[in-house]
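Dig into what follows:

_____
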Amino acid sequence: MQQKSKKLTALALILVFTLPVILAKLALDNEWFNKGSTNKGQLLNPIIEAGDLFLVEGEEPHWRLTYVIPNDCDLACENAIFSISQVRTAVGREMDRVDAVFIVTENSDLKAVKNLEENDFGKLLKSDANNVNNLFKETGNNGIFIVDTLGNVILKFNSTLDREQAIMDSRDILADLRKLLKLSRIG
């Protein structure tokens, strides 16, 4: 009787320690829950290495909210510009670590460029349209991008025509940017 009790105790101990491992393995293999992705924007894979475009020698590294000004600045373009300016302001005391950068090509809407210059929404970065198109050939340049301190384009957020949706998207951009700023000691 005592021998049987020892065997049951040993079996119970083995079961207590192995059952959670087996259940965890089953949960992972069968995708019973959402995997741990917390970013709201589209993580670019592979990232776009754009250091030549964004890095200026002697300038401190900063995080960048970037938008390419299109040929015709429609409502989606206006919403993107508004979102970038609002997000940059909303980071608060971390604002000195974040730049708003608008890429302007020879084809960009002149009215939008003039508006950006007059209202000082951010830095204007002039570039050749072919270079910009080649840089963003995999993802398209029709969205708001987060660029890290090394000049790598890492996240994309789609622009939208709907103003209310643009405001909601701004919250997502802000959430991702705050996480990046919290995790980064650079910039």
Summary: Strands lie at 42-49, 63-68, 98-104, 123-126, 143-147, 152-158. Helices lie at 2-29, 51-54, 75-90, 110-119, 129-135, 163-183. The first helix runs from residue 2 to 29. The chain has a mean pLDDT of 88.
